[in-house]
TrEMBL record:
The chain crosses the membrane at residues 12-34. The keyword DNA-binding does not apply. It comes from Methanococcoides seepicolus. InterPro entries: Flagellin/pilin_N_arc, Pilin_N_archaeal. Pfam families: Pilin_N. Residues 12-82 form the Archaeal Type IV pilin N-terminal domain. This is Type IV pilin N-terminal domain-containing protein. It comes from the Archaea.
């Protein structure tokens, strides 16, 4: 008997072992490549967090948004959305109609709404029918006593920083 002859005829054990080892190596390399790629993807910044108080005055022709606390809000990084009616219609306020005012002597740049400052959204009054006047807020015709929604939206993430329903006061 020649024991070495039996080993030379049996070649089936070598190929599956090498195949399994190659599959494991390829899997580890792919996992490392996916992990390094996903770790390098930049995430979007968080939405600013702030507390506001809003009111609307028909006679003063403005919506007042007072910043009570939290992160400062930069005028160029936010948009104001007005929603009104049934079905609900929405539109953004033109940035030229928004002005930031200082309040309580706090010092911020004129385009920053920080704690203690106020944003005023001005709007014209239109008469659709003689004697029947409406506030034209972002092309939404709102009468005195009518509720509407205002949102302060972060431009980068398109998420709401603040949202509330208010009533158009006299």
């Amino acid at each position: 008997m020649f024991p070495s002859r039996s080993f030379t005829n049996d070649k089936s054990g070598v190929s599956p072992v090498i195949g399994v080892m190659l599959m494991i190596v390829v899997t580890v390399i792919l996992a490392a490549a996916v992990s390094s790629f996903s770790g390098s993807i930049a995430t979007k910044n968080d939405v600013p967090s702030a507390t506001f108080k809003a009111s609307a005055s028909f006679s003063e022709q403005n919506i007042t948004i007072e910043h009570l606390g939290g992160d400062p809000i930069y005028k160029n990084f936010v948009k104001f959305e007005i929603s009104y009616g049934r079905p609900t219609m929405s539109n953004y306020v033109d940035k030229s109609n928004v002005t930031f005012y200082p309040k309580n002597g706090k010092d911020f740049a004129e385009d920053v709404l920080g704690p203690g400052k106020v944003a005023k959204i001005s709007f014209p009054i239109k008469a659709l029918v003689p004697g029947d006047e409406y506030a034209n807020v972002a092309e939404q015709m709102i009468a005195i006593g009518q509720p509407f929604e205002i949102k302060v939206i972060d431009r980068e993430t398109d998420l709401a920083i603040y949202s509330t329903k208010i009533i158009m006061g006299p």
